[in-house]
Amino acid sequence: MSILINKDSKVLVQAITGKSGSLQTKVMLEAGTNIVAGVTPGKSGQEVYGVPVYDYIAEAKAEHDFDTVISFVPPAFAKDSCFEAIDAGIKVLVLTTEEIALHDVVEIIAYAKAHDTILVGPGCAGVIAPGVCKVGAHPIRFFKKGHVGVVSKSGALSYEIGKTLTDAGIGQSSVVAIGGGPIWGFTQADAVALYDKDPDTDVIVLLGEIGGGSEEDAAAYIKANVKKPVVSLIVGRNAPQGKSLGHAGAIVSGNVGTAKTKIAALEDAGVHVVKNPVEMVETIRSLMDTERM
Amino acid sequence: MNLFEYEGKQMMREYGIPVPESHLITAEDAPAPMAYPFVLKAQVMTGGRGKAGGVKVCENEADYKKYAHDILNMEIKGHKVHGLLAEQMMKAEKELYLSITLQGVAKPTLIASRMGGMDIEAVSRDNPEEIVKMEIDPFTGLKGYQLKYLAKKLQVEDKKDLFAMVSKVQDAFFKAGAMLVEINPLGLVDGKLIAMDSKFVIDGHARHMQAKMDELEAARQELHAYETPFKEETTITYVPLDGDLGLISDGAGTGMLTLDLLNDAGGHVASFCELGGMTTEEVMYRAMDLTLTGHPEIKGVIVVLIGGFNRMDNMALGITKYVKEHDVKIPIYTRMCGTMEEVGLETMKQAGMPTYNILTDTVKEFVHEVEGV
């Protein structure tokens, strides 16, 4: 199995007729994702690569079953459309939109939590279960099916490590990119918890970066709960103080959010912390059965 | 957007939060705006102005003339002073600390302490039992029991006054889409709470505040010739560093990874440049321009691309166009893979530019060629 999504996931795409929405719908369909419907207000009756489009989720729900939503809705409208998706009683909402006002993000996260919807994002690349399906932007060429579970804030870094593992012949159970922050619905600790329970995941890869305290939270969870081996790479060791490096959350201020404190917390939790992708591959090889790679 | 104290206090007035009478002074020959004595406070985008001599009490005109001149011409931790706030003298019986923040926390969080008027991080470190922290549900706001608990911990007698103050601060925080509203100290003067200082930060993505932020910026330019920091029109993040190697990436995580790999290989990075959400040919061209012109001694550039949302055909067009138009002579190493890579790699080949596939190898070869290590 994979985490968050699987072969039975039925997916609805919000803002399916937009530039990103339609392109990503095409590549998700090619990756085997079962997309049952799309929504864009005012575009009802159209089709996008054969997927029927509705104005409202309630209209789509009258015709189709779905449990997963991916949203490409622009930032100004993201909050209301997330409420609409959550009100439909879905399990997982992948919110790719960046630059949503932080107070809107706070409300979306609180609303999702109160209604038992897992919110992945905002500003995230989503999730892929290699060889099965994907709800997000991960290019399938970088991934292959296997038994390493990967979680990353950065989308690009999750592709990079996916590619590195795949090039080395090591497959992945799932790869999740949760977004650059500074606040998240689904966290690194949440991903680690799901991978720990997933019978198809043998080794967990935690990709972290400077800023905030989410890697420390994950380390605390691992220390208290996780038996499976965890390998971690923390990027931004050489970042300057007080400058955010492309992700709003990736900023070191004073002693908070440094790579050093994160690495120390992870090592204290028994995590194998590596410095680069080459060491990552070597470490995973030493921790896994050859037959499961 | 970080607000100056005078702007933050104006915002507070708009939300009904009591603040002392104050006037902004932008020229040292301006007449005294109120009766002596009053306090002159440097308006500056950094903390520690008191220690640096940026806060002075004026008892008479001679004091005022001297201090206005001194403070207006002062730099505090490398920051220019943008005017003075002349403020009514306040003698506080007690100094508290109160803030609501979304910085470094997962939910809106109220932080308060009886030990106001000092560095709150020091209080948090040395007297953690003196800090009250409570999360605020965005849908309900602070609940009754939370307010009562706060009054107990702060040992405030006039609970009604405290509740009114906290409610107004909460109102300001949520309505203004704030990242931070901080009052330190929150003075108790003649038995009533009053905001003696103000730190106010508005979320730059709060669209409903855009007109307000534009208005504040226009007023800054008019009042004290404030130079708005350069705003990049694309989604590019460009951070100058002090080495000689340029770094461009199409993802923050891979950019930071490459920064570490370059350092580990003995390289010295001149600049970090990440494209952000916009990944057109023009944005790539702009990234090349920022990187190649942003640092005078740049010796080479490494471009790290792994396309998901973005397309390698567009990236290749941006790179090759820039190199051709500017007759670039320094080495440009491009690692290119992902969406539309076949087209992108062909464009690079046609332009006679090398491309690479494995990131770690690219970094090693690049540092070896350019820095000879």
UniProtKB/TrEMBL annotation, chain A:
Name of the protein in question: Succinate--CoA ligase subunit alpha
tRNA-binding found in the keyword field: no
GO biological process: tricarboxylic acid cycle
InterPro entries associated with the record: CoA-bd (IPR003781), CoA_lig_alpha (IPR005810), NAD(P)-bd_dom_sf (IPR036291), SUCC_ACL_C (IPR005811), Succinyl-CoA_synth-like (IPR016102)
UniProt GO MF annotations: nucleotide binding; succinate-CoA ligase (ADP-forming) activity; succinate-CoA ligase (GDP-forming) activity
EC supergroup of this enzyme: ligase
GO cellular-component term (any): succinate-CoA ligase complex (ADP-forming)
EC number of this enzyme: 6.2.1.5
The entry's keywords: Ligase, Nucleotide-binding
TrEMBL record, chain B:
Domain ATP-grasp: 9-227
Molecular functions per Gene Ontology: ATP binding; metal ion binding; succinate-CoA ligase (ADP-forming) activity
Entry's Gene Ontology BP terms: succinyl-CoA metabolic process; tricarboxylic acid cycle
GO cellular component: succinate-CoA ligase complex
Keywords noted in UniProt: ATP-binding, Ligase, Magnesium, Metal-binding, Nucleotide-binding, Tricarboxylic acid cycle
Record Pfam families: ATP-grasp_2, Ligase_CoA
Superkingdom of this protein's organism: Bacteria
SUPFAM superfamilies linked to this entry: Glutathione synthetase ATP-binding domain-like, Succinyl-CoA synthetase domains
Protein name (record): ATP-grasp domain-containing protein
Organism placement in taxonomy: Bacteria, Bacillati, Bacillota, Clostridia, Lachnospirales
